[in-house]
Design a protein that fits this description.
Rossmann fold, 6-stranded mixed sheet, 7 helices, OB fold (Dihydrolipoamide Acetyltransferase, E2P), 244 residues, alpha/beta
Length: 244
């Protein structure tokens, strides 16, 4: 089935429950950022649609017979230009695995219209003008708090600190331990205002309130916390601070 509107994102909804497919397709078709909505009822059906009809984004259920949503996402990541993926599920426990597969967002059923609108806002249609910002795989980080998955936008993070195989993300009011290598965050966030200051630290440059030069060493202050700047990063950090 295809629902079409004038311009915007080409979307494929994949879910083995017909009422869920119909409701999500309807909500998506009402959004002016969406140009067409195709639907599929299982993984094999979805791959058939993708073979014949290019899409910009998939809204994927996770638990389905045959190929499940995570397996479909893993296959799509092998494409030269994979479509963006939003998981839509009743299960919170797959969030970390979903973002390891570079999901753009993770929506819990029943889907609220405002959360759906936020997921669409992060996406850029294939027809968007060159230079338009694109949503990245780590623009939102899922964290577990007392059995509940919360989502931390990248722009809320003031700095990140490596702790073994994990990273602790600091915001203005909280901190969260996530299993993402600091080097991966640096790769995805360096073009969005973050800079590596030290082997253990990645800092959002516009969150720096003060820079101190003492005994030949640079230290930056973020939210009252002093963060060291290694000698090999000093020049870049100073340049980034002077041009922010």
């Amino acid at each position: 089935m295809t629902i079409a509107t004038p311009t915007g994102l080409r979307v494929l909804v994949v879910d083995d429950e017909p009422p869920a497919v119909a409701e999500l397709a309807y909500l998506l078709s009402r959004d002016p950022r969406v140009s067409s909505v195709r639907t599929a009822t299982d993984g094999e059906d979805a791959l058939r649609v993708l073979k014949n009809s290019p899409v910009d984004a998939l809204f994927l259920d996770i638990r389905m017979p045959g190929l499940d949503g995570l397996e479909i996402a893993a296959l799509l990541n092998q494409f030269a230009t994979p479509p963006q993926i939003v998981f839509v599920t009743a299960h919170e426990e797959f969030a970390l695995e979903a973002f390891d597969l570079h999901a753009s967002d993770y929506l819990l059923k029943p889907v609220r219209s405002e959360r759906l609108a936020e997921a669409l806002r992060r996406m850029t249609p294939a027809s968007a003008p060159q230079g338009a910002p694109e949503a990245g795989p780590y623009d939102v980080i899922p964290v577990e708090l007392a059995g509940v998955t919360r989502f931390i936008p990248r722009q809320d993070v003031t700095y990140a600190e490596a702790q073994g195989d994990y990273v602790r993300l600091y915001t203005a009011n909280s901190n969260h331990l996530v299993r993402i290598p600091l080097a991966v965050l640096e790769e995805h966030w360096s073009a969005t205002g973050f800079a590596r200051t030290h082997r253990r630290f990645l800092v959002r440059i516009d969150a720096v309130s003060e820079a101190r030069w003492e005994s030949g060493h640079l230290t930056v202050i973020v939210g009252g916390t002093p963060i060291p700047v290694a000698r090999r990063h000093t020049r870049e950090v100073r340049e980034r601070l002077s041009h922010r």
